[in-house]
Amino acid sequence: MPDEKKPAFAGNITADDVAAEAGVSRWTVNRAFRKDASISSKSLEKVRIAAERLGYVPDLRAASLASDRSNLVALLIDDFANPHKLVMMERLTRILRREGWDILLVNTLDRADAGHALLNASQRRVDAVILIGIQFDDEVLDTALHARRFRKLIIFARTSRNPNTISIAVDDVHAMREIANYVHERGYRRPMFLAGPRTSSAHLLRKETFVDYWRQHFGSEPETVSVAAYDPALAAGIVEDALMARTKATLPDILVCENDALAIGATDVIRHKLGLRIPEDIAITGFDDVPQAEGANYRLTTYRQPLTDMAEYLVKVLGSEEDRDFDRLFAGKLMVRDSA
Amino acid sequence: MPDEKKPAFAGNITADDVAAEAGVSRWTVNRAFRKDASISSKSLEKVRIAAERLGYVPDLRAASLASDRSNLVALLIDDFANPHKLVMMERLTRILRREGWDILLVNTLDRADAGHALLNASQRRVDAVILIGIQFDDEVLDTALHARRFRKLIIFARTSRNPNTISIAVDDVHAMREIANYVHERGYRRPMFLAGPRTSSAHLLRKETFVDYWRQHFGSEPETVSVAAYDPALAAGIVEDALMARTKATLPDILVCENDALAIGATDVIRHKLGLRIPEDIAITGFDDVPQAEGANYRLTTYRQPLTDMAEYLVKVLGSEEDRDFDRLFAGKLMVRDSA
DNA sequence: GAGCATTTTGCACGCGGGAGCAAAATTAAT
DNA sequence: ATTAATTTTGCTCCCGCGTGCAAAATGCTC
């Protein structure tokens, strides 16, 4: 046995080894590592010492296999160009971990790939799937839900009409009306709405709400432009195309953006390609309140999602055994800065 | 049995069920789902059909338990304020998944938490740990490595002197010299170096290299300023403090930043708080080439890391059974734009 | 078509630990 | 001290699949 020299790796120390070392049975060892277990403080101590000495940690694969609870959730994400994703991930991962959930991260390349991503997750027997991406059509969701390979499918920061999913999101309708009112109050009259990609399963109601509300309350029909992804660089290109050729009179006086990713791209191009000032020549609003929105460069008027509250609610939902309707909308907060 | 109405969830369909359905043995079913397996195309087809009908997918927990290979790697990350992290994650997750690796994402809160994060990973019996965070001191690494709970510990985008880790990174020394030469060639003579936090285990050699090289080759000693995290907002504050009170004559003529996160924060504050022009009043260089560095707003002169090549090399290392020194440095590319 | 090589299939056993119950030990009550 | 109530411990059986080998099936040669 030539490779016996270096002690392989210590993953193979099992509860049996610890049991022998501590002079108790294997089951007592395992109990020592479960929080609910009924165990005497004496043997708990013995086990702790023995485990420490041997470097034992319970194997969660085996525990999961036997108990049919993995304490694992899959986080499905795409759309890596959107800086808000980083914020969401930070918040979710921190809070999930605090509550004892491990995270399987799956990068969903595109719509066609979503099915594979879900399959991936189900093979690890995750307890729940959290979607913070957008590339899911209803067909994929239905397939996944029909197979029922996980207990919960949570759509985070998007609303969904699918009755079998749990949607935890900010109240877009309420938010967008607040933005519309604010925009109108500040005297803007020719808004243009900059929208992201339209998806069928994980919605945002921002564009629809803004356009309908503006039409109904302020009489005019806002222009709308759409970008194929929440990517500042892409948004910059689209906005340049849309505004470049215009005379100042035909320019919108404000660009209402579906989120900050778009707003940031728009800001850059308006300043540096069109040579216009913000907000004097054209104002801008965003949505999400990403970190850079607050920075000296953008000073973006935007709408903050209560991500921490949403994540806290998410872990509560994850922990719940009930089988009720967990959908919930949160109220955010309009952050008024200099851009509008 | 009241909860027998809705078909629970289908995770509990096992290879035995498929075997019965297909008229073969359980082992044949499992073989049908392994890539190496020796199986006749006839029974493969039978199994596929039966599995399809029943909605069976193999349980990777069990497979991993039995084979002692989890096909799981842990990705340890902190430092979520740095936009480059999003790029790294996108690249890594995409390429790892393409090669069949699943990813356990662990948000490492701080230095003290790193041990727990590693423990987390080891309980899932990951095959390898990838660090793309920085909050690791040598003590934690040594403990982890001593316990040898995983086969490989890879430090991505950082160099490490620890002989038991695998470091895959850009060649900072080479890169920084190139930057120093470029800066000097362009006529800058009073550089200030803006550094990030200093850590003991996962290094960057940028500051040391730049300062030493500049001193040796160009005679003067560059000022240096340090920021506690790679966070644009933090960097902005530090730069403001460092430069605010100065007269134009005592200002550095270029700010050489350890990475783009710092450069971006610095750019914002220099333009909008100090009211200076870039590069006319003060130039800036970064490192990493994050997406926004290319955008119209920053046009940042920076150094691109070959992330794709690095990630491809990483999966090659992961797949290798050899036990040799896998450390490797990559050459990047100076991206000259408008900021310097 | 017999005889042999080669592929395919089935099987006992093991991976590490959980659920639930019965035996043992401890504590409380009389 | 004795019995009953309670806690702790050990144990059997199982979770779902891989390993390595033996049995069965198939292919090949002459």
TrEMBL record, chains A, B:
This is DNA-binding LacI/PurR family transcriptional regulator. It comes from Rhizobium wenxiniae. PANTHER family: LACI-RELATED TRANSCRIPTIONAL REPRESSOR, TRANSCRIPTION REGULATOR, MEMBER OF GALR FAMILY. It holds the Pfam family Peripla_BP_3. Keywords: DNA-binding, Transcription, Transcription regulation. One of its GO terms (molecular function) is transcription cis-regulatory region binding. Residues 13-67 form the HTH lacI-type domain.
